Amino acid sequence: MAVVLGCSIALGLEWLSNPASAHLDFRVHTSSYSYTDSSCKYAVDPISVVFYRNATIANVDQHAGHHGGWSNHSGGTQYFYDHYCGAMDNQNASGDWWQSRYHMREWWNWDARNGYYTLATPHHEDTTWCGHAVDGDQNEPPGGYVRAKWEIGYRWHNWNNGGGSHYFGGSQYWGNTQEFQQCDGDWASNDGWIDFVEIR
Fold first, then answer.
1. Count of CB atoms within 10 A of residue 27's CB?
2. pLDDT tens digits along 84-132
């Protein structure tokens, strides 16, 4: 049942990533991870949310502060691949670099189908003896990547029959489930699903 439902949700979102007519396409032109290097070789965080329609960096920044208090911009630079490898455009966090917090880095672009869209890598990270570490899947289930995606669901959009005012455009399976070992030894990964959130 869950597999059938997941497939139908993904098919319903086909217009969001149709390679014949759209710029955003994780199968060919858009990577589903951010990277530590300017050649986009070393993946570090999974993309798990795509804001679309009018999701300029300025608008995403405004809503991040409004819905979740994610108004801090501290953190290191990462890179995204979307037709080419480039440095991120912004980052938002719910606390400063020395605090445990929600955090996401963002890259924005435009295409005829999605309008202005922003790729985001939300995660929850704890301050540890070695610096920030994303919550581990085993020690702090469901893990920091999924936890932050759910937090956006609770605060920004309406899939939980309450939450925020933005339209939830469904989820699509991008398969980005690579595990990343954190500096404290924990392993963290996304569940492979990407949530689409409309920004008007």
1. 10
2. 999 999 999 999 989 999 999 999 999 888 899 999 999 999 999 999 9
Residues in the chain: 200
* Helix/strand/coil percent split, the chain, to 5: 20, 35, 45
With CA atoms as reference, report the closest residue to 166 among 7, 12, 49.
49
Helix or strand holding residue 62 (H, E): helix 57-68
Record the tokens describing residue 199, joined without a space.
């920004």
Name the DSSP class of 75.
S
- What 3-state class would DSSP assign to 152? helix
CA 54 to chain centre: 16
Q: What is the bridge-based pairing of β-strands 168-173 and 193-199?
A: antiparallel
pLDDT in the model for residue 149: 96
Distance CA 45, CA 154 (A): 21
Query: Which backbone phi and psi does 67 adopt, to 5 degrees?
Result: -85, -35
| CB atoms closer than 10 angstroms to residue 183 | 12
Structure tokens at 32: 């589903």
Structure token digits, residue 94: 């719910």
98 touches 77 (CB < 8 A): no
pTM above 0.90, yes or no: no
Structure tokens at 103: 């955090």
Whether the pLDDT of residue 57 is over 90: the answer is: yes
Helix (H, G, I), strand (E, B) or coil at 129: coil
